[in-house]
Amino acid sequence: MSTFAEKEHLSPFADVKQPAYDAKALHIEQCRACQCCMLACSYHHRRAFSPAFSSISVTRNNQNGIVQWSIDSTCDDCVGEDEHLCAKYCAYGVLTIAASPAAAPGGGEAR
Amino acid sequence: MTFSDEMRGEIQGAITGRILRVDLSSGSITTDSTEQYAKRWIGGQMLNSWLLLSETPPGTRWSDPGAPLIFGAGALGGTLVPSACRTSVDTINVFSGGKGSANMGGNFGPMLKFAGFDHIVLKGKAERPTYLWVHDGRAELRDAASLWGMTISETELALRRELGSRTLAVAAIGPAGEHKVKGACIVNTGGKVAGGSGVGCVMGDKNLKAIVVDGDGVVELADPERFMAAVDVARRKIDASPYSKAMRSEGLVVQCYLAEHTKEYPDGFATVRNAQEEWWPPEKREELCGRRAGVPSHMQKIFGCISCPISCMPYMRIDSGKYAGMHAQGYWCNAVLWSQKTDTTDPKASLAGDLLCNDLGLDGDNTHVPIAWAFEAYEKGLLTKADTDGLALEWGDGDVVVELIRKIAYRDGFGDFLADGVVAAAAKLGHGSETFATSLMGQDTLDPFRVAPGWGLGVATSPVAGRHLRGAVYPAFTTGPHDQVWDDYGYDPAIPEAVFWMLRTKQVEDALGVCNYTSSYLAAYAVENADLAEELSAAMGVEVTAEELLWRGQRGYNLEKAFNTIHTGWERAANYPPVRFFDEPITQGPYAGRVCDRAAWDKMLDRFYELHGWDKATSLQTREVLSALAMDDVAEMIAATGKLKEATVARGGGA
What we know:
heterodimer; A: 11% strand; globular; disordered C terminus; B: Aldehyde Ferredoxin Oxidoreductase,  A, domain 1; Aldehyde Ferredoxin Oxidoreductase Protein, subunit A, domain 3; 6-stranded mixed β-sheet; 19 strands
């Protein structure tokens, strides 16, 4: 029998909300590697632009034309924004997200 | 209305604030502040132009160690402003000795800013092959012996492996730049090219194989909320553009040249058989550009530059035939003109030639003009197989074009004869071949002049010598001011005004680093100067309007003009199309009989100089206009050469 306490012991992240982000919503074949999602994500985190402060990484292999897209654990599901910024600024329908971002703690103001 | 020399407000964002200065001779690397220049010249190409003008002593040649080679990210590069991806490369034009400037998309400029710098000023010459590695606010020169001889794609891959980063951007020269071929270009992001003016030739002369940029820096915003609101307005305009949807689904560039899309890419816009004609039969266009078997059928996917919501660059693959296995980003609208130059309809050869130019580091315009000239010389019997390494230069033979591209890049045999441009080749050959060498101010020109005067005027007056991105307009509704209409095919009096608007707007876009495909030119044709003014104000913390930006654009253009006045002997006579376009009428198609009209050109140029406030007789700048543009220091530089006019004087008639 598993208790809540045990679960927490097993994983320190057990009650951290996982992003609504769903890999099934990623239509990578439509990606043009424009990195708008990457830039928009860093705007969410820092109100500035930087690949280093983005949860998203987009790389393309110029040798074979293959695009690789990834998102890491720093994604907070665009908490506090009106919509997911990565999806909002994707012009190519690569990212479609059904859920709305959670309101920010303490009144839903953008950070 | 006049504005002040410096933009109002305090710079609080958009730029990194640092310029990297590298002396390749001594190996010294220093930094400089961007801010001291940015309030006057914004950034990108305009700021580059100022650095080039103020740091190039009169008499400096492109091959002198003192010749600067300057890379500049646009002021809005690295932000989410739609298509703010452009990088300007400025130096002395290897063809003309005047202003050299080439502009590229890709990720280089934005990554340069994330690496901690807005501009890179290179001077001197490295003793041995070298590359520059710029990352996280630091820079070092490294040995490039193992890279020398590599093509662009090989170089990029080798550097990625050597430096171990997935995000870095590489701007490199290929074998053409190494061999100081005058038409050599600089390529970044697997096929985004800074071509024209021989910028790759200068880089090769400096023994600099590549510049690699990468970093975790941050591009800050003065007013983030206001900035994103401005971005959203611009994005909505692009989304609402009637062109956007088709472009996104099929690729912007491919849309421009699909055989059936003649409205977007009108007839009468071709220089067929070395500009003997300006019309190409539809069946030839179908063969080259048909959806089923033409070049578009080779498209695998489309790539966009960083921050671009429209995307234009097709990724191509050739699966069968002689060029099977070639694959890369490439094939521009211009490539259709290149093919028409030699009457080539074979899509595979045309595509292979384009991909090869990109990989060997050759500008397509500067390569295909001498090739087409050689074809015509061969047709006229001035060249024979004994001169051409046994190649038969017969119209329509695309395989020979591909072979000549390779030969030019390596200065191999007959390629060496063509590698210094069409003017040099015609001077060597003589026998009247100069009359069909299409060039302006020493540089090969690809462009048509007889049918569309708005295009011709922009090309002929370009301060970067015979290129079409300094004011050319054609057709109306997809270039030039959004609310102005003119007759594309006649000498409409509105044309000089449209060109004057276009050239100022282009300076603004190049300073901000915004691609003209989302704003003033073809493609989306959506974002306007007012949008750019709002984006710049919110990002940088200055306060500018559309009107002020246009005024600043005029300043930028005058910087380039001043460089030419100081470093060359060009006056009014340099601004007429090549003689062929006046002397030889088109013989085929709907525009048969058309030829450039000298009296009409006289009038267009009169009006053009009048709009600029320049002296009509000579085209030289006046103290009056430079003073009104708050460029008194530039006026003094020109005055020192004795070529400054005090004020415009009334002048009637033609040249």
